[in-house]
Amino acid sequence: MNKGRLIVFSAPSGCGKGTMLAQILKNGNYHCSVSATTRQPRENEKDGVNYYFISNEEFENKIKEDAFLEYAGYCNHYYGTLLSEVDDYLEKGTDVILEIEVQGAMKVMQKRPEAVSVFVMPPSIKELRRRLKKRGTETDEVIEKRISEATGEIAQAGKYDYIIVNNVLEDAVDDFCAVMRAERLKSEFSDDIINEVLENA
Ligand code: 5GP
Question: Which atom of ligand 1 lies nearest, measured to the CA of 153?
């Protein structure tokens, strides 16, 4: 059986990444890795579903135990991808999506060069600010901090394999599906079909 594909999916906060991912998960068979974080849950977030919400001490213990594929500091908190959320799924042939920021994405690209990386862009910074304000989950100060992080992240978008602009949600989701469709047709992931055709020759 072919292994699943590892997908690095990054977008600055407020780019509509959550809505896009919800659509992608509805349309396809992916496991979306649940990260660990030390930030506080937002009102509608559940432990073990959106994140594993853990203390600084627990996070640092996991770093010592080598439990992370990658981790990074973002807006004064730790965020990390647990290996247990990735490798078992890939072995079973399930594609795994990592919804992570740029520093972590670069680490995954180094450690797992076969990963497919996708960066989602807002149409403009003005629109990004408007969306963050509309969400109303952060103070003005946090919003400005997130916009400054976003500008730094967008400057690194060229390091990703694919860039999708999230202007119209349906188009952005379509673009993602097109990327995955092309990726699945790559010869390096087609051993199963090559062997099957040859065996039945
Ligand atoms: P939020 O606090 O809005 O949920 O997430 C803030 C940022 O952390 C987002 O850019 C999100 O993609 C990123 N993030 C979430 N989980 C991880 C992770 O496991 N590792 C890294 N490096 N970034 C993460």
Answer: 10
